[in-house]
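Format notes (please read before filing issues)

Several people have asked whether sequences and structure tokens are stored in separate files. They are not. Every record keeps both together, in the order shown below: the sequence lines, then the token lines. Line labels are part of the format and must not be stripped during preprocessing.
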Amino acid sequence: MYLTGTDGAAVGTYAYDEFGRTVNPENGKRDSIAYTKNGNIIQPLAFTGYQQDEMTDSYFAQARYYDAEVGRFVSRDKERFIYIYNSKTENLYSYSENRPLNYIDPTGNIIYTPLEGAEAHQILQEYAVVIFDAKIEYPIEGGSFHGTDKYGRADIVVVSELYAEIYEIKPVTYAKGYRRILADNQLENYISAFNNPEYSNMQNMGGDYSREGY
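Then the structure lines:
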């Protein structure tokens, strides 16, 4: 991986193994090239977009910290992400179910395949905007499902004079089992927060109440 300047010239090189341990990009060995901050060049992002914490030498993965040297998170996962349908979720410290070549964990909570539904997700959102004048990635106050922010972000929100329809886009792997339960809970959380009079979601959108979109 290269960090380039505005002229396209490489000003920094980075390389990682499958669990995020730094390696020398020139020979692939574990003795990585020393990283120095030159002038105003600041590169906070590292392995899979995590932020490098120089004090602890670990990665900040939004929900918790990840230690690449041992391939484990330093704090336990939330119990809501344990499912009897998948015994691998019972290990509350594992990273990507110990299969980092197959999965990524962008938030420290849930694993995905790198390109899982990304293209379909974008196409559906673009269609909703053009045809229904929908809002996409709409912030819902009080709707954070992962507990890392005040706001949750609904994939699609279609507003009418009386109500708003909220849609959450998921790949086919969420059609059943523990992932379906997770997706349903996420959507219900958005709707509950949207309808909660303590927040200003309905006033901002102009609807009287929200309902689930299918």
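For reference, the curators noted about this record: Residues 63 and 108 are 5 Å apart (CA to CA). The chain has a mean pLDDT of 79.
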